[in-house]
Amino acid sequence: MAQPNYDAIIIGAGHNGLTNAAFLAKAGLDVLVLEKNDHIGGATVSRELEPGWFYSNCSYVCSLFRPEIYQALDLGRHGLEIVPLQGSVTFSQNGDYFGSYHQSDIKRREIARHSQRDADAAIRFDADLMKWCRLIRGMLLRTPPDPGSFKARDAFEFAFLLKKFYELSEAQLYEFIRFFTMSIADYLAEYFENDLILAHFSGGSIIGTGLGVYSPGTAYVLLHHAMGDVDGNVGSWGFARGGMGSVAAALASAFQSLGGTLQDSATVAKINVNDGITTGVTLTNGDVIDAKCVVSNLDAKRTFLNLMEEKDLPPKLVERAKTFKIRGSSGKLNIALDGMPEFPALPKGSPLTLGHMHFSDTLERLERAYDDWKDDRWSEDPYVDLLVPSQYDPTVAPPGKHMMSVFVQYCPVEPDGGWTSEKRDAFGKTVIDQIADYSPNFKDLLVHTEVRTPNEIENEVGLTGGNIFQGELTLDQLLFNRPFPGYAQYRGPAQGMYMCGSSNHPGGGVMGAPGANAAREILRDLKKPDVTPQDFGDD
User: Fold this and answer.
1) Residue 276 burial (CB count, 10 A)
2) CB 3.0 to 4.6 Å from 361: which of 92, 232, 306, 467, for a disulfide?
3) How far is CA 402 from CA 395, 448, 505, in A?
4) Are 362 and 195 in contact (CB under 8 A)?
5) 37 has which bridge partners?
6) pLDDT digits over 22-64, tens only?
7) Residue 307's domain is classified under what CATH number?
8) Is residue 361 assigned to a domain?
9) pLDDT tens digits, residue range 297-347?
10) What is the pLDDT of residues 79-102, one digit of tens each?
């Protein structure tokens, strides 16, 4: 059955798809968003785990979401509120802990408690990391230049990049190149000596990544996690009040207020192409919906290998899609608690329970966890990023109760023999046992536990292999190489076909930048006024 024509169809109501749709609608286009699930949000979803307990099913903290997008779409008016998160802590097996505080004086005293040398080095480390954050942040809301193009626009974009690098000294330029290719273990060793501090600062480099702390390229992953901000504080993290589904809900509200149409329970079977021109989509129920352009919020593998026919693609693109690195390595537990767990290692009333909590206290433990994943096993001693958001947001749990989010590295896409309910439960028990080693009353507080392996993440969210970034954040898959050389400017191989997901520059995380950048290119091609924000790197 033929459906009405639209200016644009967006496949997938994840946060990037909704961001893209909202900017297209803001420019006056007639836009339709199609979502296969009966709910929107993709990885940014809040759902009821147990009556009264609400959880963020996949993504769980907010930092990378670009403030320029928040302001341009007036998301505060649509209900999005971010509450800053306070500090973090790594527990030691010997009963001690390392706490990282936002207050600089307290943070310095805590580092000095473990190593006076590291307390001095931390000042240099923070300054150097923020230097690279400021440099990279200026590229997030820009379309990467095409190295093989002779167009004036690409030349100007290369000139912009050269100007940014020209501002670096020769020593800084060498340092920057080294940074992108170093392991986090080697990078941190240039600053710190204490094992607990090294382990603490390494965690952000492996989250969502099929790499270990000694793998080249993990230093950049730390930077990727550090370059966001909350309320103008670079490197800070926060909770979306009501869970991460509030991000998607605010974007959907903004989109619909601009005249957009949102349709759930609508699975796209194919992007229709006729003589190299995109004409619309076909749904699994047989409906055909025509549009001037189609935008995929799915990852590069699903977009090109599942939604498009091979005859409509260049053979080299098909090969690149097949070899695109998108290995899942993460699991997640969402836990309803009858009360707040106690952590005896911390002083009574410590604010550190308000932040990220970790239990891997050496680089060796982190690397062994990675070794398990390489052998297609879940880690026997996993790295976890534990948060209790109900301490900030009472809307996600009943009075006096709590909701816990536990992000886990490493968990294989498919263990030997495949996933079964018994293996999933065994994986969850491994994580729960580790938490209980540091919180003796934890198991007594368990009301309900949802265990999510890469298998559940892929099937429910649509992330290939359960990879939360829609593709590894390695040097060969960044900037004008993301997802592939020649396709980094959000345009597909057919006229009128675009990509707006995290497989594209600048990559994964709840950022919104790929969606906004793709909208800018679509409006340029349709000769419509550009209503998208663009970061000119002035920060």
Assistant:
1) 11
2) 92
3) 10, 11, 36
4) yes
5) none
6) 999 999 999 999 999 999 999 999 988 889 999 888 888 876 7
7) 3.50.50.60
8) no
9) 999 999 999 999 999 999 999 999 999 999 999 999 999 999 999 999 999
10) 999 888 878 999 999 999 999 988
Domain with 271, as residue range(s), is 2-47+63-82+242-324+470-525
Distance CA 105, CA 110 (A): 9
**CB atoms < 10 A from the CB of 282, how many?**
16
Pairing, β 383-387 against β 402-409: antiparallel
Cis ω before 344 (30° cut-off from 0) = no
Amino acid at position 492, single letter? G
Share of the chain above pLDDT 70, in %: 96
Strand (E) or helix (H) holding 63: none
* Beta-carbon-side half-sphere exposure of residue 378 (alpha carbons within 13 Å): 25
* Residue 386 burial (C-beta neighbours within 10 Å; 0-12, 13-18, 19+): buried
Asked whether residue 263 is assigned to any structural domain, the reply reads yes
- The phi, psi pair for 9, rounded to 5°, reads -120, 130
Name the amino acid, one letter, at 485.
P
Number of domains in the chain: 1
Residues 117-138, mean pLDDT to the nearest whole number = 88
Stretch (H or E) spanning 527: none
Strand 402-409: give its sheet, edge to edge: 97-100, 88-91, 356-358, 383-387, 402-409, 330-337, 446-452
Integer Cα distance of 68 and 75 in angstroms? 11
Query: Is the preceding omega at residue 394 within 30 degrees of 0, hence cis?
Result: no
Token representation of residue 148: 């093989």
Give 55's Cβ-side CA count (13 Å radius).
Answer: 26
Q: Which helix (H) or strand (E) holds 136?
A: helix 116-137
**pLDDT for residue 165 is more than 90:** no
Taking the CA atoms of 140, 143, 146 and 150 in sequence, report the sign of the dihedral they define.
Answer: negative
What is the sign, positive or negative, of the torsion defined by CA atoms of 300, 302, 308, 310?
positive
| 228 located within any domain | no
- Whether 25 is covered by a domain: the verdict is yes
Residue 381 near residue 368, CB atoms below 8 Å: yes
Q: Which residues sit opposite 263 in a β-bridge?
A: 34
At position 536, the amino acid (one-letter code) is: F
Which helix (H) or strand (E) segment is 39 a member of? none
List the single range of 152-161, 420-429, 454-463, 472-481 with lowest mean pLDDT. Answer: 152-161
| pTM for this predicted structure | 0.93
Query: How far does Cα 375 stand from its chain's mean position?
Result: 25
Torsion sign, CA atoms 358, 363, 368, 371: positive
**384: confidence class by pLDDT, cuts 50, 70, 90:** very high
Does residue 229 surpass a pLDDT of 60? Answer: no
CA–CA gap between residue 468 and residue 454 (Å, rounded): 9
Write down how long the chain is. Answer: 539
